[in-house]
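Subject: sequence -> structure tokens, single chain

Hey, anyone have a minute? Need the predicted structure for the following. Not urgent.
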Amino acid sequence: MAGLVLAVTAVSALYASNPGRSQLALSVRLAYNAVDHRDDMTMTYLPFHTLGDDRESRWLITCDHASNAVPPEVNGGSLGISDPDMARHIAFDPGAAGVSAGLGELLGAPVVLGNFSRLVIDPNRGEDDPTLVMKLYDGTIVPANRHVDAAEVERRLNAYHRPYHGAVARMAARREDTVYVAIHSFTRQLRGREPRPWHIGILHGKDSRFAIPLLRRLHEETDLCVGENEPYGGHLDGDSVDRHAIGPGRVNVLIELRNDLIRTDAQQWGWAKRLAPILEEVLDATQL
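Reply:
Had a minute. Here:
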């Protein structure tokens, strides 16, 4: 078994409630079987997927933690932890890939999805971050990372982390006015902690010119509990938003969605449909 992998498929579906009109139903599923994510020409592991490469809007949607895949080159495709743990937030951001794909479709935006577990190496960390390769996460020991040395970290950087960021950099550079939207999800409750009340969190650091207006707009949604820099603080030096948006001066925002609210295809699509017009509205209002 090559480990848990994320299979991303997109299928067109007609909605009976809208005769003559179609919408894209995006299905992002966990496959608990051996799937060889290799390029048939190069026979090398593919550390990212892109959707809608030819889409031309300003928006770029990224999902660093889209997948819980463990490449076969990493301990034979297993980190030595259980399948239930690999399905938890410690291994990836459940539901985030589906929301990302839906936003890409609705905003006419390309989407870049990571295709390796954050426990293999975290694409949302700078290369010198001490949490780049985690050995313990939310009470779970990661046996395959216990004795990882500098050489193995460098191999994982070259095989997965750097190619993913290369893909993001290429898509971000396709326009001078790219708006960078990072989609993540969070667990409702960490082990031994209080439940988190927020449905959605907007993270920002040094650059809040889009995030603050978006927060104000989301607070108008009376059924939502909205967090500012919740459930995490702003951006870390060298993380994905810092690297691809704040540093180059691109308009940006990081959106965190509580993962129990985006478990199903319908929930993921529903959040994409809800957020897409709000994002467009705020961008238009701010004239950024």
